[in-house]
Amino acid sequence: IGGAGAAESPVVLKGEYLNKAKISDGGKKLRKNWTSTWVVLETDQLLFYKESKQEALTNLKSGCRPDGVDLCGAMIEWTTERSSRKNVVQITTSSGSEFLLQADNYPTICKWHDAMKRTAESLSTN
Ligand code: I3P
Fold it and tell me: How far apart are CA 10 and CA 35, in angstroms?
């Protein structure tokens, strides 16, 4: 089907740096490693880039896909148990992988929590 933009979905929230930690992969626990990540929310998935400029580069190269999380069937919830940090959102995917997203600024992370939750809900009711 081709074309650089073929696989892209509309952006719901533009890129922003958030702290991210993947804590389990398909049910297998991972060692937590927080990293600053450029996060973009699309209508059906959450994309992770190392840096903001990587988003533009990836979009130019067809066939090059960033790391992402399929939000269909995902659970989005606040957690105070999975981290000692404040403002932590947990994403549990349908395949059983778990991610934490965090920002020190509460309004920032709140905006991401609400948008991801709405996106996941819209996908599961389709
Ligand atoms: C982890 C590191 C994380 C911490 C995590 C530690 O240690 O300090 O920042 O998570 O806590 O295990 P290490 O670098 O040795 O792997 P939080 O900052 O989210 O608390 P945890 O094991 O309780 O998840």
Answer: 26
